[in-house]
Amino acid sequence: DGGITQSPKYLFRKEGQNVTLSCEQNLNHDAMYWYRQDPGQGLRLIYYSQIVNDFQKGDIAEGYSVSREKKESFPLTVTSAQKNPTAFYLCASSIRRGNQPQHFGDGTRLSIL
Amino acid sequence: DQQVKQNSPSLSVQEGRISILNCDYTNSMFDYFLWYKKYPAEGPTFLISISSIKDKNEDGRFTVFLNKSAKHLSLHIVPSQPGDSAVYFCAASAIGSSNTGKLIFGQGTTLQVKP
């Protein structure tokens, strides 16, 4: 089955630690995205990548970093600089050209211990 | 500045009746609109989309209407089923961002369909 896999589903972090959330897709999509969802709010874009070895900041990139070394993978690192990291993180991918829907993984819930 | 707004946090309808979810936007450059459905602890699932050159798109029980002059879109679900109970997000992208696929999401509306 083609799809997007996010791992782990639940993640706990101690204050001051960096953590990395995994996102893998086998849809052969060029573009990948990271969103954050907080209670009662919509999804906010953290980072996105249209092609391997290239990525751009979204609306709330501070305290986060990404890499895109392979087409299939777009890991997100939540650094200690992110002051309010507790949230539900969603990864998505899409065909790059034209208006195409994004397809989402099942998310990772990050909590601070 | 909330460019995409879903002003109703929740909606409750009876099974078999019509559900109408609404979404307003402020950016006249938006040219592509989507609706997603989301269950708790899962990722959003794409439902239906519409381009700004159209005013209606239909897929089975789901129909999206776009009123560009009012900067308003709506999702109609007919007939509503208990399995439709979920959070519904509308999203939009702007001319020029089509190649990036960057989407702006509303806050979501929780739909409850009662048996």
List segments of chain A where confidence is low: pLDDT < 50 over at least 5 consecutive residues: none
The major β-sheet of chain B equals: 6 strands, mixed
Fraction in helix of chain A: under 10%
Mean pLDDT of chain B: 93
Cα(first) to Cα(last) distance of chain A is: 35 Å
Structure class of chain B: mainly beta
Average pLDDT metric of chain A: 92
Write a compact overview of the structure shown.
Chain A is built from no helices and eleven strands.
Report on the architecture of this protein.
The complex is a heterodimer of chains A (113) and B (115). Chain A is an all-beta fold and 113 residues long. Chain A contains no helices and eleven strands. The mean pLDDT of chain A is 92. Helix content of chain B is 0%, strand content 55%. Chain B has strands at residues 4-5, 10-14, 19-25, 30-38, 45-51, 56-59, 62-67, 72-77, 86-94, 104-105, 109-114. In chain B, the strands form two sheets. In chain B, strands 2, 4, 5, 9, 10 and 11 form a six-stranded mixed β-sheet that branches. The N and C termini of chain B lie far apart (38 Å). The mean pLDDT of chain B is 93.
